[in-house]
Amino acid sequence: MCGIIGYVGQRQGLPIALDGLRNMEYRGYDSAGIAITQGAGIAAVKRAGKLQNLEDRIDEVGVESLKGTTAIGHTRWATHGRPIDENAHPHLSYDGKVAIVHNGIIENFASLRDELRAAGIELRSETDSEVAAHLLARAYNEGETAGDFRASALAVLNRLEGAFTILFMHDDHPDQIIAARRSTPLIVGVGEGEMFLGSDVAAFIEHTKHAVELGQDNVVILRADEYEILNFDGTPATGRPFEIDWDLAAAEKGGYDSFMLKEIHEQPAAVRDTLAGHYQDGRVTLDEQNLTDEDLKYIDQVFVVACGSAYHSGLLAKYAIEHWVRVPVQIEVASEFRYRDPILDERTLVLAISQSGETADTLEAVRHAKAQGAKVLAVCNTNGSQIPRESDAVLYTHAGPEIGVASTKAFLAQVAANYIVGLALAQAKGTKYPDEIAEIYRSLEEIPAKIERVLECEEQVTGIAEVLGAVRTMLFLGRGVGYPVALEGALKLKELAYIHAEGFPAGELKHGPIALIEDDLPVVVIVPSPRGVTVLHSKIVSNIQEIRARGAKTIVIAEEGDTAVEPYANWLIRIPESPSMMQPLLATVPLQYLAAEIAGHCGNTDIDKPRNLAKSVTVE
Ligand code: F6R
Q1: Predicted confidence (pLDDT) per residue in 509-541, tens digit
Q2: Which stretches make up the SIS domain (predicted)?
Q3: Across all residues in the chain, what is the average pLDDT?
């Protein structure tokens, strides 16, 4: 996710902003920039690529031209618009008097861009963020709020929809920064005669340990010796002061022991951000859609290609698309796809799912599909990467950079994105009524809050892992949409704990794998909702009885209120009720914890970097 730093004080802002950006490099980014003012024109530098590119640019323009004690800085992880210089932040207004940096998604940016264009303002980037700079300049230059920085900022903030942390700088007011947050974090760092802003404390931890967390929909007016917190309507608000007791390494991980644990906790936001803006005015929309509704309507078969966790998310795409759209969906591990010579034509949609967008197997599958005339739709977490570039259309997941090698938040975001694709297809083909689509979208939007509740099972899972200790092998069983969850749970355990783990459809057990069951073998069972396909539920209850009778220790994941499973569970992990199709977004979470905890007992002390694995696999 983007990193933000702000500084108002007595010292030169440039080195402070650069240090802050360096400390936030761990978040992942594809471009960076800084803006500085001392009231004689805003100076800004920005560059795509690593911070070194920005520093090279600073050397070119000379530090003398970047003097000022008020600065804002940004590392960007591209969401709207490619990772190129023009799209890097800060963005300046048409009159050059305003600079902004933004983290998040401005959902109504398209209509705001239209409004600005109609007023004769030229947009210089492809981002959703740039509109905020021009809107602020207009509010300050004309109308009721003219000449009033605070009133203009509030007026603009009240027009923005979506999730954002945003910092405003105005050249007529070089002694202050106005900043706001909605749904994404913003922290004030309180120094001696200087103040800081950061998207996390790593931005300013070297300078002060005194911090104030802003609440939801709060605005802060920051000066060197004071800060004032407001609500969006201008009424006073208060933040939550706290002392930072982390060092930089701990701050980068948000206080968690590993990036992976931090990323597990970021899953509500990853799903929420992925869903944001894709259902508007009663319609589901994709991102860069060079596929028209007519194209989608014409599709008569879907192929899903992906690897590893992305493949497991693709299995869920199959369940959803076949159920909602009634077209056949085939799914193939990307490395097998093109060598098998699958039958593709111009009525085939290939859904290519990849967190990195660089996985060679998936990329080659995309190329093969395109060469056969199929349409390719990418689901990807990395803007500007190769797979979306070569696809006909793309739907970006907004999980933010995933640093832990084992996928967690990107996987859940992929599932959410795949469901959006399913709904877009159902809409184009008319296989679901608009109200049915609205209902499904609503249940998707309820998922982030439910994930928050599932995250509370961490302590329980730690306890289970402690009792299990260094297990040698483990089985995972599921039925229906619980089957891909079982596969994902087993993959996480293999990756992190380096032990043998296997996921099966529970019904397949009796055809062989049941021979593996022995005394004390831990078996995880993902139980479908008793309110969904009831026959599946009762069948899996029988499956649990079968394995318990043969000595297995069962870790059962079941909905709240499902009492039928209680007698057969050695451990019962509860997840909130949800429609069947949504259950994987909840049931996966305890399995991520379980793998992370068991890894520790099996001797893996660095779950962020499991042995032999790479985050981006660019060889076939
Ligand atoms: C598992 C994992 C891998 C990736 C796979 C595909 O935790 O991370 O299995 O899912 O290598 O990577 P992407 O999604 O980047 O194509």
Answers
A1: 889 989 999 999 999 999 999 988 888 899 999
A2: 292-431, 464-609
A3: 94
**Residue 615: active-site member:** yes
3 alpha carbon to ligand 1 midpoint, in Å? 24
pLDDT, position 16: 97
User: Do residues 46 and 31 lie in contact, with contact meaning Cβ atoms separated by under 8 Å?
Assistant: yes
| Integer Cα distance of 206 and 202 in angstroms | 8
For residue 608, the Cα-to-chain-centroid distance in whole angstroms is: 17
Is the predicted pLDDT of residue 27 greater than 90, yes or no? no
Is 457 an annotated catalytic residue?
no
HEC secondary structure over 499-566: CEEEEEEHHHHHHCHHHHCCCCCEEEEECCCCCCCHHHHHHHHHHHHHHHHCCCEEEEEEECCCCCCH
> Which atom from ligand 1 is nearest to the alpha carbon of 414?
14
CA distances from residue 272 to 163, 168, 412, 445 in whole angstroms, order as listed = 10, 25, 10, 7
pLDDT above 90: residue 114: yes
Listed in sequence order, the DSSP H helices in 103-245 are 109-118, 130-141, 149-157
In whole angstroms, give the CA distance from residue 65 to residue 43: 7
Helix, strand, coil % in the chain, rounded to nearest 5 = 40, 25, 35
Write down the pLDDT at residue 288.
67
Please give the average per-residue pLDDT across 264-272, as a whole number.
96
Neighbouring residues of 491: CB distance < 8 A, sequence distance ≥ 6: 308, 309, 312, 501, 503
Centre of ligand 1 from the C-alpha of residue 494, in Å:
13
Q: What's the residue count for the chain?
A: 620
What structural domains and CATH numbers belong to the chain?
3-255 (3.60.20.10), 262-445 (3.40.50.10490), 453-601 (3.40.50.10490)
Q: For 549-559, how does the pLDDT look when each residue is reduced to its tens digit (9 = 90+)? A: 999 999 999 99
Q: In sequence order, which ranges of 342-431 are alpha helices (DSSP H)?
A: 360-371, 386-390, 409-429
